[in-house]
Amino acid sequence: MEELKKTVKVPESEQLQSVYSLKFEDLQDWLKEQGEPKFRATQIFEWLYQKRVTSFEQMSNLSKDLREKLANSFTITTLKIVTRQVSSDGTVKFLFELHDGYSIETVVMRHDYGNSVCVTTQVGCRLGCTFCASTLGGLKRNLEAGEIVAQVLESQRAMDEVEERVSSVVVMGIGEPFDNYDELVPFLKTINHEKGLNIGARHITVSTSGVVPKIYKFADEKMQINFAISLHAPTTEIRSKLMPVNRAWPLEKLMDSIRYYIETTGRRVTFEYGLFGGVNDQEEHAELLADLIKGVKCHVNLIPVNYVLERDYVRTPREQIFAFEKVLKNRGVNVTIRREQGHDIDAACGQLRAKERKEETR
């Protein structure tokens, strides 16, 4: 089947491009066009990402003329907080409203080793995974790179209140990141840039459901970030029932692209495997999974699924989760069970948006 057609990035409007969408080199090029010295890019990035200003007028070491040029050319993306949920374990889930009224989710997770932010890349999703609340209502639009960056910045502002730092970012929120590839890459480069948010490559993780052509492209980028695949099934038959994307790019083709990624980058991959009661969680499924990934440089992350009201899947019993893990360990697979967070709030991806914005997710 053909590669999924690219969607419109941003609806036609008078909204200016987000300054957060500019990579450092892009900003240098723009300054050169304006007859300004390149070093101004460092000053602007400092105002945006270290001082986290919300208007160009606050950039006091820039000339008034340059500030006006910036204001006439770009916008500093702001996200309106619609809902902020705080879990007993410290997890914070935001429902943000965008400039056009659409809403997205962002999650801040607290760990012993630091604070992690899970960002969204699309308003909704068109891939139709049968267990996911994010696909309810389909895809509305892609996010601009700056709208993804803004999620990290808003999360950092929340961390500023307690004098803490966002130390890692996971691209696992609403949407398929590789279905918005051209905005994803500038986002990754900006948050990684030493003059930007300076989040180390090894502290950034991107997850895909298996858009195979983009896996090859991403491998050729040779970015040293962490890469995860939402696998969720050991056979192409089961996976096609759970994830329609598997009908476009079957499991065999997905595994070929993953091997190419590993050979090209030298990095291992993480397989995300959600356990769904009676569907893919039996010991024979674990044996089939071990066969599938044999010889692949990887780690398996088992995920006890969150209950989603609009979906029919049930949670795998605790003892069955451990039995599944034991089979994999006995087969020499590097495996862990994901620690649950935000269990007392709308933890499942897209669940808060589905509850609060029913008109978007019908």
TrEMBL record:
Q: Give the protein's cofactors.
A: [4Fe-4S] cluster
Q: Known InterPro entries for this protein?
A: Aldolase_TIM, Methyltransferase_A, RlmN_N, RNA_MTrfase_RlmN, rRNA_lsu_MTrfase_RlmN/Cfr, rSAM, rSAM_sf
Q: Which GO terms describe its cellular component?
A: cytoplasm
Question: Which residues does the annotation say bind [4Fe-4S] cluster?
Answer: C125, C129, C132
MF-aspect GO terms = 4 iron, 4 sulfur cluster binding; metal ion binding; rRNA (adenine(2503)-C2-)-methyltransferase activity; rRNA binding; tRNA (adenine(37)-C2)-methyltransferase activity; tRNA binding
**From its record, what is one biological process in GO terms?**
rRNA base methylation
- Task of the protein: Specifically methylates position 2 of adenine 2503 in 23S rRNA and position 2 of adenine 37 in tRNAs.
Q: Which HAMAP family match?
A: RNA_methyltr_RlmN (MF_01849)
Q: What is this protein called?
A: Probable dual-specificity RNA methyltransferase RlmN
Species source reads Halalkalibacter okhensis
